[in-house]
């Protein structure tokens, strides 16, 4: 499920043949300390950043408004 440093376009190409709800996690193109979650939906693809906040004990935040998590399961 983790694909390392690939682009948004590459993520979409990987997900395209799979069913709705399929996803992958990749290293963020804009900040290599963060990740991006790419999901195939009925309307195309959704890409959300997973921010790694080292200053808060290494918490992760999905998108802009989520609760912080201690790990990515």
In short:
Keywords: SH2 domain. The chain is mostly beta strands.
Unreliable runs: none
User: Level of helix content?
Assistant: 10-25%
What would the average pLDDT be, to the nearest integer? 91
Q: Give the strand tally.
A: 4
How far is the N terminus from the C terminus?
11 Å
Overall radius of gyration: 12 Å
> Strand-and-helix sequence, N→C?
HEEEE
- The CATH topology assignment is SHC Adaptor Protein
Overall CATH class: Alpha Beta
CATH architecture: 2-Layer Sandwich
Number of helices: 1
Q: Which key terms come to mind for this protein?
A:
73 residues; SH2; SHC Adaptor Protein; single chain; SH2 domain; 4 strands; mainly beta; SH2 domain-containing protein; SH2_domain_adapters
Question: How would you sum up this structure, described in words?
Answer:
- The chain has 73 residues and is mainly beta.
- It contains 1 helix and 4 strands, in the order H-E-E-E-E.
- The protein has one helix at residues 8-15, and strands spanning 23-27, 35-41, 44-53, 59-62.
- The chain has a 4-stranded antiparallel beta sheet with strand order 1-2-3-4, with helices on one face.
- A hairpin with a 5-residue loop joins strand 3 and strand 4 (59-62).
- The protein is globular, with a radius of gyration of 12 Å.
- It holds the Pfam family SH2.
- Residues 1-73 form the SH2 domain.
- InterPro entries: SH2, SH2_dom_sf, SH2_domain_adapters.
